[in-house]
């Protein structure tokens, strides 16, 4: 039995995986930020300060904070893990054999901490010395040989714990696909996680952690839109049923737009029966309840679409899933939704971390009896992610 895991969004948070923003953010320029999924160019030192404030707020509440780069460096002390990391990072078809061979030798000589730096911040063509060949001569000096991973900050998306299993996800955007090679390596080779049973995997259909909400023990909502695909939720549902991790998966179609890239950009749980939600979608959001077919042959039974809150309450076996609205008026709601007002991280039932800037939404949460732990996020927010996106709960006290 793994000592790690989570069966809800709101059980007391004991351990969380974060990524302190680092040099990968310094790779962002006005020419590449769109492709790298940032809306602006963050001031990195300030983003780090804000992130340290976030981590401290969690520690002050007794949460153990793990950092992705520390786990990665510890993992890379193992020679097999190093070789694996290097081979997968250099597998891209843009390199060619000469440059690939050169980079492999270069990376093999790097100390674990340096290797973590290259794997996260990437390598530009003009940063390599030697190894000259046709490819490096023809590529532009600012082309990346290994892409930087500025979205590592959003640890929510690259893995998700479902009870005592970890799902290594499969990220849809090319700028992020390499992130899950790193989470897979950590969960496979890091001594703390060795033996953890995994589901899904980056080789499979797209499922991103931001779309996966553990509504209650046994009930998982999965957004289907810009990131998670219909085929992704189908495989995910089949696996969680097969492993006995859930009895119902709610497949929730969301608009395929940047503002609503993940289900957790429009709603997050703040109590066992309370959800903060963007009012503009609240009435139209639907869910298809998926359950295992009775024959137990892996087939899925899919109910017709129902209003999301109704389908969720039914599956959770509660009378009502209470909705708390983002913002006051439609314009404030739209602004605060964009600034991740819905993207709260519950650290216990009725206690949630939120960006301080979403003044109206936070006031509403408090009116509804939710304690709000406010954090600064002016720079962190430029990647379009809030406290929930920036955290992967590794241990929560089970609700059952
Ligand atoms: N769970 C989330 N909402 N994550 C936000 C991810 C933001 C990131 N820039 C992306 O576009 O992928």
From TrEMBL:
Pathway: Amino-acid degradation; L-arginine degradation via ADI pathway; carbamoyl phosphate from L-arginine: step 1/2. Pfam families: ADI. InterPro entries: Arg_deiminase (IPR003876). Keywords: Arginine metabolism, Cytoplasm, Hydrolase. The keyword Cytoplasm applies. It is an enzyme of class 3 (hydrolase). It is found in: Cytoplasm. Gene3D superfamilies: Arginine deiminase, L-arginine/glycine Amidinotransferase, Chain A. Its EC number is 3.5.3.6. The active site is at residue 389. Its main location: cytoplasm. It catalyses: L-arginine + H2O = L-citrulline + NH4(+). GO terms for molecular function: arginine deiminase activity. Transmembrane segments: none annotated. It comes from the Bacteria. HAMAP family: Arg_deiminase. NCBIfam families: PRK01388.1. Belongs to the arginine deiminase family. This is Arginine deiminase.
